[in-house]
Write a structure and sequence with these properties.
The chain is an all-alpha fold. It is 73% helix and 0% strand.
Amino acid sequence: MQEQQAQSADESTAILTEQSALAEDYRLLEEKLFKLYEFERESNPARSDLLKRAFLQSQETMTTRQLSEVVAMIESGNLRDAETMQADVLAQMQALLVLLESEDRGKRVRDDIRRHQEYLKEVERILRIQRGLRGQAEAGSDPSALEQTQNNTANRTGQLGDEIERSEQPDESQPDPGGQPEPDPDENENPDGGLSPESEPSDGELENNGSDSEPPGQESSENQSGRQSNGQPAADEGTPAEGGESAPMDQQQSNPVINRIRQAEQRMREASEDLKRAQMEQSIEDMQAAETEMAAARQELEEILRQLREEEIERTLAMLESRFRQILEREIKVYEGTKTLAETSERGTAFEITAGRLAAEQNEIAIEAARALMLLDEDGSSVAFPETVDQMREDMIQVAGRLSAARAGQTTLEIEEDIIETLNYIITALVTTQEDLERMNQAGNQQSSGSSAGEQPLVDQLAEIKMLRGLQERIYRRHVRYSRRLPDPEDPLGEANDAELQRALTRLAQRQEQLTEIARDIVAGLNK
């Protein structure tokens, strides 16, 4: 009896020690969240905002205080209340984890888009093959020659369904809305595998024998899939089909793409059996039903891709707006500092030190602009927008060079004014685009015509053209400014003899050439 009491006391002491250590670790975590928020505030506004929200959320739930109270409860032997409060704390920690992990949401969305685009390509390949088979069957080809190809196509469809099931299973490690962890998912684990198409004729060979049009109207897929080629009722939808296992019924219903693909696979196998029995009319009917299901799966995938792309666009636009607003705020401070220097009559050591400090700040702002440019280049759906940012970044570097040389005159101020105007223009375009996107979403509008699923541009064609016009206007204004520095500004054939002015005109000519190329790309549709 004494040994049991001693063992129980040791266990209580161990639990108390672990709980105390956990409370201290969480307190330190909360402190680090705040320090990281301050550290990232200038260089990474988006991450800083996320860390701030995480810190405030932890403060509002008073998780640190609750952990300390749990320690006190365990120490006093009040284990039942300690257990209840621990459950609350666990839910709060899981919610905090979800918030912190949301920073990776952008990457996950891009991965989802890439993965669903691959599914869509495979669905379209299978659909082309199936149409080709139907075309051969309608042309009276030998049923025995078509049977094996039809069976291979069904196998390929089943493999696609298996791949989607493996990749698109919900992450059961995430907490449910109630904050409780999900059951261990190991018991539902599927074997690994991938898309490995069986031997079949080339897409082109079958396409030439088939019809590119959608299959004619059919009876409902539920009625079609409810019978086999011999007229007998088919197996339940949840029954494993030949060539692969079907997902449980509830999982199929939760993913309409998988459900459509499984229905198509079943009708393909029925068509194969029809061909085996030389029942050509019945096989054609089953092939048409399979095409209907695959076409529906394609539509489901296109809708998923549209939604994913819209989410990616919303996140990117919000991130860019936040970043450019931070850049504008810092650029205005540099401009005000340069203006003060330009009005200073004494040009001694203090003047040079201040100019150097402004030059360093301007260089840092240029780096932030380069990071924003990387986001635009990564998206890759716009050409005028990145060019606008790139030219603005070049202007920032030029200003930094002039300030480093303690040249805070009118020319430097004019370039900074151009930078500020460009930033305001960019922010306005981003806000307008977000408002337009929100209105379209509220109206339930689908993606614009001409854009492939999951490939909607970050900004539409009209915004691109407006950006192009803005670039041209800035080139024109700068050209007019440079002309005023000629010996005779009224001379239409005046030549620039000043070396600095010649370099500036060369840069301006290069920008005009780049602008011409962008205009050609937009007209030719190469930016899509």
